[in-house]
C-alpha cells in the first residue's frame, strides 16, 4: 500500500522523492547569532532542504542541581562529567534568535522548524508558524509532549534512539490518537559520535512495516556513508548535525558535517535514491549502445569457398551480429559457401 507523502514546507517526503536533508544546528552556533545565521546560509548553499533548531532553556529541560544523577559520566566521549544544567545553558538556542533564524531560512527557501521540549516551547513555536515538529530521542517516551506536538496538526518527525519497538509504537499511537497521521519515524543511535556498526540500518524496513509510516535516519556517525546506505534501505529523510568548521568548536562540532560534506550528503543521497529505480531485468534504455558490443561469431581471417570453419578463422569477438558463441561447436568443421572477408559476422547463410 502506497502511503501519502508528508510535506514539510515545500518539500514532499516519500519514496517517490529524493530524500529530504535536514541540517541540525543544535548548539553549533556557539553562542553567536551571527554564526547561527551563517550556518543557515551555509545549509542553503549546500542544498539542504531544511534547518532545525532545538527549543529549550536549561530550566525547561532540567533543574539546576549538582548531584551525580545530573552529571554526564566521567568517561563520556564529548562532555565528560559535565553538569546537565551548565551544558544546556551553553548549548541552547536563545528563543529570541528563532524569529531571525526562521526568517532568513524562509528567504533562502529552507523549511525551518524545531524540536520542542516542553509545552511552553510548543506554544512559542506555534506563534512562529513552524511547518513541522521533531520529537527528540530522549523525549519519545514523554507521551504528553508527543501528544502536544501532534495536536498542532503539523507533520511530526519522531527520533527513536534508545527506544524499544514498544516505546516507538506507543509514541506513534499517541500521535495518531491526537488526529495526526503525518508521521516520519527516524532510526537513530543516541551516541555522539555513533559507531557505524551500531547504526543497525537493516532495522529500517522492519521499522517502516511496524509503524506504517515513512522512515528516515537521524545520523550521528562521522561522514555520510551511513546516510547513503540508509537511503538504499528506504530512508526518506536524513538528519545530520552541521557546522561551519569542526575546528571552531561548538558542543556538537566533533560529529557534525562541514559544508563540503553537507554538499556531498545532498548529492550522494539523491544519487542513491535515483539508483534504486524499480525492479527490472534486461537492458535499460541507457544500455542500448552496449547491446551492439556483445560477443558473437565472426570470420577473423579471409577465407575461400569450401574452406572448413576452424578456431583459427572463426572466433567469438565483439560486436554482435553473428551467431551466438555457443554455436561454434555446431558449425566447426562445416565449410564456407563463398569467399568471405575478415570481419564478416558468421551467419547461417555463409555455411
UniProtKB/TrEMBL annotation:
InterPro entries: AFP_Neu5c_C_sf, Aldolase_TIM, PseI-like, PseI/NeuA/B-like_N, Pseudaminic_synth_PseI, SAF, SAF_AFP_Neu5Ac, SAF_PseI/NeuA/NeuB. One of its GO terms (biological process) is carbohydrate biosynthetic process. GO terms for molecular function: N-acylneuraminate-9-phosphate synthase activity. Residues 296-351 form the AFP-like domain. This is Pseudaminic acid synthase. It comes from Actinocatenispora rupis.
